[in-house]
Write a structure and sequence with these properties.
This protein is mainly alpha-helical and about 525 residues long. It has helices spanning about 20-30, 35, 40-45, 50-75, 80-90, 95-125, 135-145, 160-175, 180-205, 210-220, 230-245, 250-255, 265-295, 310-325, 325-360, 365-385, 390-420, 425-435, 440-470, 475-500, 525. It is found in: Membrane. It is a multi-pass membrane protein.
């Protein structure tokens, strides 16, 4: 394969200080809100203990292979998503660059509403001290705290959301402005151990509650018949896919900050299994607590409502905290963990956007953080700190995640493996720098199995959204905040890829050379 000319002199690329810093930061990105509030409920509803089988299969056949794909793209082509896709695309540079900007736009949108959820968790951390939600957490959350209004676009701000939301944005901008080593890495090195310790204390406390055993039995008792349901397998792939921070630029960007001679696959395995371990730990803590709640009410765990997402975190858990001994401390641990998990994921999402702007427009980390952060903060506050914020957040999240990210993954695997025929080069790169060799099986999983499963997920979800809508909301509202989000992602990708680079990303030579010295290039490689 013909390589481009050597890179011109440029500002040295930021780097992690070492492998530990990278691993902690990657785990901090992967471990987020979904690990705590999504996995336990998904596992319970899809076969209980039996769900761990398709979950492990999905991890090994799709999650880890696509994680390695992101690592290889970012590390070999030394850039955020737009830069990496442009460089691997070569003669198709502007076209392939647009896929990178599509991923950046996804991260931008997610950052807007993800920050709002962290702000809620921060508020509830404070509320835990005096159990401010009282005897009716559902009414408190929707009517008193969020002051939820009718679908629309309101400028009636809710001070209880606006103030913590502004604080979260200030903290995130400061971390981004400090750079990779002094900002992102330092934040993860501090926050991730605190998160793990706090959550372990929470889980241990939950295990000694009355009814905890019944809760764990409800979660882990296997329903083997569920393994025959294709939807259970799709749920497993979906959970792995969304929990590993893959296919929307995060791991491409993070890998680009590793030194050239850096092991990629072994740390990737550590990150993947650490993320899954935390999910199982979250399942134990959540269902032990739900078992106590069911015991207090004299009902079965299966009769409880609000076992996933926002309802679990901000309605069910406050109700549990109000009834348990030492409730305020338990509440502080839970919402503190939720805040920390969310924040370490948030800064990784925002770094995707910041890094892309740094490279496209030759900005310093501080300038990019100020620009991206200020624009994002204003939009986030306008959209999600008002009385219509909850509805806008729910719809935007549904479409950005289930349509945007899955579409990005399908396009990435097809473009890289089949259109650009980049599989051999990326496999060679992974094997050349890593101790754990991926071999040909990796290319088959990324190029065949992953796009088939993900395309099925995408088509299935799009059909449901078109035919049934979402959440019983008016079609016009879904058109604005749902399909409007998808339209924004596409337009942003086209516009950003059309803008001129301050410094050409094409003056670049990938290392190590491919094909290796002494190995003749194939006809396709000579053409490229």
């Amino acid at each position: 394969m013909t390589q481009n000319a050597p890179a011109a002199a440029a500002r040295p690329r930021e780097q992690w200080t070492g492998q530990v810093g990278f691993i902690l930061s990657a785990i901090g990105s992967a471990v987020g809100l979904g690990n705590i509030w999504r996995f336990p409920g998904v596992a319970y509803e899809n076969g209980g203990g039996a769900f761990l089988i398709p979950y492990l299969v999905a991890l090994l056949t799709a999650g880890i292979p696509i994680l390695f794909l992101d690592y290889a793209l970012g590390h070999r082509f030394r850039g955020a998503a737009p830069t990496a896709f442009r460089r691997i695309g070569r003669s198709l540079g502007r076209f392939t660059e647009s896929l990178g900007w599509f991923q950046v736009a996804i991260a931008f949108v997610i950052g807007l509403y993800y920050t709002a959820v962290i702000a809620w968790a921060l508020s509830y951390f404070v509320f835990s001290f005096d159990l401010r939600w009282g005897d009716d957490p559902a009414t408190f959350f929707q009517a008193d705290f969020l002051q939820v209004g009718d679908p629309g676009l309101s400028l009636e701000f809710v001070p209880g959301v606006l103030i913590p939301l502004a604080l979260v944005w200030i903290a995130a901008i400061l971390v981004l402005a400090a750079g990779v080593a002094k900002g992102l890495q330092r934040a993860n090195v501090i926050f991730l151990p605190v998160l793990i310790v706090a959550f372990l204390v929470l889980v241990v406390r939950a295990l000694f509650l009355d009814g905890a055993a019944e809760g764990l039995n409800a979660l882990f008792t296997p329903n083997w018949a569920a393994l025959g349901d294709p939807n259970v397998w799709i749920a497993a792939y979906s959970q792995i896919f969304f929990s590993l921070s893959i296919a929307f630029g995060i791991m491409i960007t993070y890998a680009s900050y590793r030194r050239r001679r850096s092991n990629l696959t072994a740390p990737g395995l550590v990150v993947a299994f650490a993320n899954s371990s935390f999910e199982i730990l979250a399942g134990i803590g959540v269902f032990a607590t739900l078992g106590f709640f069911a015991f207090q009410q004299g009902i079965e765990v299966s009769e409880l409502e609000g076992l996933t997402g926002v309802g679990l975190s901000f309605i069910t858990f406050p109700a549990i905290v109000s009834q348990m001994p030492g409730g305020p401390l338990f509440g502080c641990l839970f919402f503190g963990s939720l805040t920390l998990a969310g924040f370490t994921s948030l800064i990784s999402v925002l770094q995707v956007v910041s890094a892309a702007f740094q490279e496209k427009f030759r900005l310093t980390p501080r300038a990019a953080a100020a620009t991206v952060g200020s624009v994002s903060a204003v939009l986030s506050i306008l959209l999600f700190s008002t009385t219509t914020g909850l509805l806008a957040l729910d719809v935007t999240d549904q479409y950005a995640n289930n349509v945007g990210i899955v579409a990005s993954a399908v396009l990435t695997t097809i473009l890289v493996i089949w259109v650009l025929r980049g599989g051999p080069e990326l496999r060679y790169h992974l094997d050349a720098v890593s101790t754990f060799k991926v071999g040909r099986v990796w290319a088959l999983l990324v190029g065949v199995l992953a796009p088939i499963v993900l395309a099925y997920m995408l088509i299935q979800r799009v059909v449901v959204l078109i035919v049934e809508g979402y959440g019983g909301l008016p079609p016009w509202y879904l058109a604005v905040f749902g399909w409007g989000t998808i339209a924004f992602l596409v337009v942003a990708a086209i516009v950003m890829s059309a803008l001129k680079w301050r410094d050409s990303p094409d003056d670049f030579r990938a290392w190590p050379p491919f094909p290796p010295e002494g190995q003749p290039a194939t006809r396709k490689e000579r053409v490229r």
